[in-house]
């Protein structure tokens, strides 16, 4: 009962935050609404005892990805009046995407929950056994059955990182650069000279 | 006549948790007040001054009334909101900063019996909450609509994202040694006296963790987000009164949190230092209790203050270099070393239950 009440509260917040994310004119508000979306979906995942996924969602998306997003969005010089013109120009594209996603979700639900499937949506949530560890279960399939897809994804990400760095790095000539090794190797004697002087002139 | 002990055990689980949450929050707030006093006193002594010594409580203990007088002062001051600030976010930012600093205490085992939540993914929960601390800072910096505040926020965001990685890798090492992400289990696996605590086999990770912890809380020598000499006070330059006090509270609560986590991950939490030793093991010195946990927190808090009194501020580019090019490689190398130790069953991996 409590879980259902909590679910509905979180679901309403999630939907409002999602709506706010796509309707807000100010990109910073959009980003913050998206953060709200992530946090509430993590809470909903917690309700179905998927605590590992929930915490990782917050850790990766809220803690790292969205911080960098905000970082960039805040530095943009945004002219709100300019943004307001033609705000709905691409609305049809959004509607098409939304329709496609809805059809996909309905298809999955129909295929898994419809004809002769093992999932009974009306039965509600089945509590997990006491000693069950989400993290352990995920780890034991990820590193055995799905080891190759996992490695592939890791290599892909690595390639993406290298590509991003290679694309944005330019070497300009005539640039003054620090030599960190030399900075670290500096000793006091190289920079400071103690001079002994008399307080008054010698007679 | 109601028997308090009977009443306590008659409470349902959530009732007891609620009581503990209230107790922990109140104790934390009072500890922050006393910590500010202790900081000013310690730095005063290190600089051959007296520190605060005027305001008394009930005519006793000169100086102890100072933090409480400061609280009253901050509460009575006007909260000034700049004309061009984003009013809503400007008000929300201090609260966003405060929430993770307090919510993290939910999974910390305070003594063998007392913990609010025995979450299995406790370690990940802590990592995700500490990573959310940055939002208060960047939202404040942006909402203020001022150059200095924004510069401070940007510095702090970059710094916190960078040091989180080193912190996470250091915790991977702890996870490997304990074989669990439950904080209670992590403490329990370190039983057997102070040489069995994780600091011995994970010493480089301890160093990385504590340095990253100091950087995550934006404390000296990594306090460029505030940087009085360059950007006045960084992200909270326009905050006054109680709004500023909330940022202050969050910063000090985070310091206490990092000290507590260092104690839990590397120094055996509530374990006594002479546990299992002949003679000493049966006395108070060997018994697990909250006293040991509190003592360890106190020692690490002293380190924070000591650093502040000792080190000059880091240059910003050097902070970035230290995080990315020194701390992260150290953690990666030590994780590889741990793999070897685990393969040959040395140290914490020699325990029979591990394999």
Brief characterization of the structure:
Chain A has 203 residues and is mostly helical.
Strand content of chain B: under 5%
Number of strands of chain A: 0
- Radius of gyration of chain A, in Å, reads 28 Å
Q: What is the number of helices of chain B?
A: 13
Q: In percent, how helical is the residue content of chain A?
A: 55-70%
Q: What is the radius of gyration of chain B computed over CA atoms, rounded to a whole number of angstroms?
A: 21 Å
Please state the oligomeric state of the protein chains shown: heterodimer
For the sheet with most strands of chain B, the description reads: none
SSE string of chain A: HHHHHHHHH
Low-confidence stretches of chain B: none
> What is the number of beta strands of chain B?
0
Mean pLDDT of chain B: 84
Largest sheet of chain A: none
What class would the helix/strand composition of chain A place it in?
Answer: mainly alpha
Shape call of chain B: globular
Helicity level of chain B: 55-70%
Work out the helix count of chain A: 9
Distance between the termini of chain A: 99 Å
Greatest interface and its participating residue counts: A-B, 23 and 26 residues
The low-confidence runs of chain A, each spanning 5 or more residues with pLDDT under 50, are none
């Amino acid at each position: 009962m409590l879980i259902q009440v909590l679910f509905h509260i979180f679901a309403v917040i999630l939907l409002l935050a999602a709506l706010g994310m796509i309707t807000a004119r100010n990109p910073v508000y959009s980003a913050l609404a998206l953060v709200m979306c992530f946090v509430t979906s993590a809470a909903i995942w917690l309700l179905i005892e998927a605590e590992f996924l929930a915490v990782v969602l917050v850790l990766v998306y809220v803690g790292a990805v969205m911080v960098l997003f905000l970082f960039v969005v805040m530095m943009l010089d945004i002219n709100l009046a300019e943004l307001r013109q033609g705000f709905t120009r691409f609305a049809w594209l959004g509607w098409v995407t939304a329709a496609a996603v809805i059809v996909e979700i309905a298809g999955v639900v129909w295929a898994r929950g419809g004809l002769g499937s093992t999932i009974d949506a009306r039965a509600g949530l089945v509590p997990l056994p006491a000693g069950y560890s989400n993290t352990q279960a995920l780890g034991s399939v990820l590193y055995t059955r799905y080891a190759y897809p996992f490695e592939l994804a890791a290599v892909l990400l690595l390639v993406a990182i290298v590509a991003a760095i290679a694309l944005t790095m330019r070497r300009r000539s005539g640039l003054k650069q620090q030599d960190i090794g030399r900075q670290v190797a500096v000793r006091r004697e190289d920079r400071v000279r103690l001079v002994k002087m008399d307080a008054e002139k010698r007679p | 006549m109601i028997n308090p002990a009977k009443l306590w055990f008659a409470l349902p689980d959530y009732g007891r948790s609620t009581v503990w949450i209230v107790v922990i929050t109140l104790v934390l707030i009072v500890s922050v007040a006393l910590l500010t006093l202790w900081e000013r006193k310690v730095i005063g002594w290190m600089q051959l001054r007296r520190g605060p010594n005027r305001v008394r409580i009930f005519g006793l203990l000169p100086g102890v009334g100072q933090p409480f007088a400061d609280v009253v002062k901050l509460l009575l001051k006007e909260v000034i909101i700049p004309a061009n600030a984003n009013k809503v976010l400007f008000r929300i930012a201090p609260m966003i900063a405060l929430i993770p600093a307090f919510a993290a205490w939910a999974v910390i085992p305070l003594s063998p019996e007392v913990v609010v939540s025995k979450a299995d993914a406790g370690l990940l929960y802590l990592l995700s909450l500490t990573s959310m601390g940055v939002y208060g800072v960047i939202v404040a910096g942006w909402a203020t609509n001022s150059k200095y505040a924004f510069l401070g926020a940007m510095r702090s965001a970059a710094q916190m994202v960078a040091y989180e990685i080193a912190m996470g890798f250091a915790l991977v090492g702890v996870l490997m040694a304990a074989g669990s992400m439950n904080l209670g289990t992590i403490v329990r696996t370190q039983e057997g006296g102070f040489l069995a605590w994780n600091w011995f086999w994970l010493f480089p990770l301890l160093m990385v963790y504590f340095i990253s912890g100091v950087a995550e809380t934006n404390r000296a020598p990594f306090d460029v987000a505030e940087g009085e000499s360059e950007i006045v006070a960084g992200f909270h330059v326009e905050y006054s009164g109680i709004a500023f006090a909330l940022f202050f509270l969050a910063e000090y609560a985070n310091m206490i949190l990092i000290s507590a986590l260092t104690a839990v991950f590397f120094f055996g939490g509530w374990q006594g230092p002479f546990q299992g030793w002949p003679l000493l093991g049966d006395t108070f010195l060997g018994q697990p209790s909250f006293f040991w946990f509190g003592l360890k927190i106190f020692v690490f808090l002293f380190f924070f203050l000591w650093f502040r009194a000792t080190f000059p501020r880091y240059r910003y580019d050097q902070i970035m270099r230290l995080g990315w090019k020194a701390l992260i490689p150290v953690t990666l190398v030590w994780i590889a070393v741990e793999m070897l130790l685990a393969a040959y069953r040395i140290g914490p991996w020699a325990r029979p239950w591990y394999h």
